[in-house]
Specification:
single chain; alpha+beta; Peroxisomal Thiolase, Chain A, domain 1; nine-stranded mixed β-sheet; 12 helices; 35% helix
């Protein structure tokens, strides 16, 4: 059987970073202005006063210290509190595709691949810029790749679902090499006026090259040993904004059209689901958790990762066993586990095992066991 491998990954990081302190200054200014403007209604009890936040609260709640964003000025403007990303003419490459291409070029260089070596492009991400034409086809055209491409959206698990899809194409002989790209402009769907969630997300793009072991020409690839996917419907993480909602007024005036979640319910539901699936996946492959050198977990919340690693390993994983990029990048949806993998795999030796694991809205869970070749 053809053996699929991850031969390289790529990363594009936006140039702008926002610290917790900067974000809180903007948020608290908004809170102060809101409470002042609505002082009479607040005193009458018809409107509830907003509560200010702090950098310490954000870090304790999530483990996040900063995030990279496509636009910093609009987010930090207390009168706007949303990214200001100019529309581009149809003849110009879209923002999401531009980020994806930058990450793709990084991965292609590391894999020693040209456009002529790749047959398929998958854009697997939560935050698509438009319904159609597919972002993947735009990325394919920008890179000069023949063959075909399509978009996938399984929320924060899009990248791992993309890896399994790419591996299946390689095994079936439908492609020699597949480019999986995960561009995420998460700041565009975030409610920066919500104290409980305004700090969660950042923007980034990652890329993955999946090909056959036989065609791989670079040392240090990662054999895809096994993959496991799971979905279970839940409304506890949701975003209702889409092409059926028209106009800026609908977007800006209704929090339901932005990211919303029932955080405590998500924590309670997802942690055991992920832990049980990982343990079952390892067991079905005749492997055990202590045999893993590293787990590159989805970067949503440090507390969730600690609980998951404790259930899988029997103890909380240390930073080497479960590296953290959440503090610098925040939650980057589908890209989070891939950033962790991209930055923390250089010390692997041939035969070492690792696990790329994602989980998010849907609910969706993806588990990919890899072995250094």
């Amino acid at each position: 059987m053809v053996q699929p491998v991850i031969s390289a990954t790529g990363l594009y990081t936006p140039p702008n970073s926002i610290s917790n302190e900067e974000l809180v200054t903007s948020f608290n200014t908004y809170v102060e202005n809101f409470n002042a403007e609505n002082a009479d209604a607040i005193a009458a009890g018809t409107i509830e006063a907003l509560t200010p936040s702090s950098a310490a609260f954000i870090e304790k709640a999530s483990g996040i210290k900063a995030r990279y964003v496509v636009d910093k000025e609009g987010i930090l403007d207390p009168a706007r509190m949303a990214p200001c990303i100019a529309e581009r003419p149809n003849e110009e490459i879209s923002v999401l595709a531009e980020m994806a291409v930058a990450a793709a070029r990084d991965a292609m260089k590391a894999a020693d691949k040209t456009a002529a070596d790749i047959d398929t492009v998958l854009v697997a991400a939560s935050n698509m810029q438009r319904p159609y034409p597919a972002m993947a086809v735009e990325v394919q055209g920008a890179l000069g790749i023949e063959g075909f491409g399509f978009d996938m959206n399984v929320a924060c698990s899009s990248a791992t679902f993309g890896i399994q899809t790419a591996a299946d194409f390689i095994i079936a002989g439908h492609a020699r090499a597949v480019l999986v790209v995960n561009p995420e402009i998460c700041s565009g769907h975030l409610n920066f006026r919500d104290r409980d969630s305004h700090f969660i997300f950042g923007d980034v793009a990652t890329a993955i090259i999946v090909e056959s072991a036989e065609s791989c020409t670079v040392p240090g690839a990662y054999e895809i040993v096994s993959t496991r996917l799971k979905t279970k419907f839940s409304n506890n993480i949701r975003n209702n904004f889409g092409f059926l909602n028209r106009g800026d007024e609908a977007h800006a005036g209704d929090a339901d059209k932005l990211f919303v979640q029932e955080g405590r319910k998500v924590f309670k539901d997802v942690v055991p689901m992920v832990s049980d699936m990982v343990l079952e996946h390892l067991g079905d492959e005749g492997l055990d958790a202590p045999g893993l050198k590293r787990m590159w977990l989805h970067q949503a919340n440090q507390g969730m990762n600690d609980f998951i690693s404790k259930k899988v390993l029997g103890r909380v994983a240390n930073a080497e066993e479960s590296p953290v990029i959440l503090d610098e990048y925040a939650n980057t949806s589908s890209a989070g586990s891939i950033i962790a993998f991209h930055k923390y795999n250089d010390d692997f030796k041939p035969g070492d095992l690792g696990l790329i694991c994602s989980f998010g809205a849907g609910y969706s869970i993806g588990s990919v066991i890899v072995r250094k070749t």
